[in-house]
Every structure is written in C-alpha cells, then in structure tokens.
What we know:
By secondary structure, this protein is α/β, with parallel strands linked by helices. It has twelve helices and nine strands. It has a single domain, classed as TIM Barrel (Alpha-Beta Barrel).
Amino acid sequence: MSNRIKRLFAQKPKGILSVYFTAGFPNLNDTETIILELEKNGVDLLEIGMPFSDPLADGPTIQASSTVALKNGMTIPKLFEQLQDIRQKTQIPLVLMGYLNPVMQYGVERFCQKAAEVGIDGIILPDLPLQQYVEEFKELFEKYNLSKVFLITPQTPEARIREIDSLSNGFIYMVSSASTTGKTVGLAEQSQAYFQRVAGMQLQNPGVIGFGIHDKDTFEAACTHASGAIIGSAFVKALQREGSLSENIKSFIQSIKN
C-alpha cells in the first residue's frame, strides 16, 4: 500500500479534505500551481483528473472542464511530464482519476511504471470492472506500489463491498448517490442510511465520500459518516472565477475549512 495514503489516514482518521481537479484546466500548465496551492491551504489528499472525451460518471461541470483541458492539449504523457519534479516540492498524497480507454491506449504497465516514477500514490478508474482489475491490473498495481481505489454506491450489495474492501489498499470512494458528480442536493436521508450501513460493516479500508459535496455543511455532514470527503465540481467551478488562480483556490478552501 502506498505509504503516503496510509500515513495520512493513520495520522488523521477523521476530517480528511480531498479535492479533485481536471489536469489542464483552466490552463494547460496550471497543474503544479493548483497542487501546491491546495496543499498550502490545508487540503489533505488530491485527485488529479485525466481528461477524457466521454466521461460517464461526471456531471456537466467536470465534463466541460475535460473538454477545455483536451482542447488545451492535455494528454497522459503531458501530465506525467508536468508531474516529473512534483515530489521535490510536496509530499501530499496524489491520486490519478480517469477512464480506462486512455490508460489502455497509453499501455497499462507503462502507465503504472510512469505513475510510480513521478510519485503517484493511487489510481481511480471508475469504468474498470472488478473482474478485469483482478485478471489484468492487480499484479501491475502491486508491482508498482499503487493503491487501487474503487467506487461503491448505495446500490452496491454487501458481498460486493466486502470483495472491494479485500482488494483495496488505500481508501474506498463512497459515492453518495447513484447519479453523476456535481448535483448539489445535500446528503439525502437515503444516503445517510447507506453511510450507516457501510460504517456498520467495519471495513478494513477507510471510506471517503464523494459526489454532491460542495460547501462547508455538506463536507462536515459527510465527515460524520466517513473519514473524509471529496470536493470536485464545486472546486472546478471556483477555478473559473475572475482573478488569480491562487486567490480563487485560497478563498474556496477557506470557505470549506473555516
């Protein structure tokens, strides 16, 4: 298991703030600035989105940011190039999130090797089926010491959650509802029942809640049920505001934390 992720959850079992951003958005070369600014403002864990032209689980905000990033010229090789020296500047846990197709095109082993080389700690591929992971990916992820992070939803059966828990080595991404990212309805009562059900299973991996976390209230509500929460669409929106990138990042993160 990746030591940075393990260390984070050991040192801070509750209240983990994770932020997602799309690499190459708003501008192609913002990646390093965004990472360092988020860390400076007290974010614990980062998810770097690898833009893809057909993102199934993403709501309109992240889809639009993906489109812009691709237009800007973001690719997997470009992203790895941007991350080449990141570990000389920060030790914050970094997770790459994206879809299977671009990873397959890049080459799975080459991708894992390169991710490990630049200091990536974990990978989230929402459209990679569990069975395919076990048969084709597991060995490579273990070889390159990459945590595989799986998503579960309120519809995931208990047996499946337990299987995912046994295959996970980092944290489990608990999708708060069965819809796409960026819907800001707060955490519904049915979600609460699901969070309690998962908590009652006493899994070996910590859970982090994502989808619909967009402000201080939803972040704090999610943290009562899990080790932390992930903010994606709301942060991507904040990056589009007028003014400097670092100011926008600072004011957004402060609105969540303070």
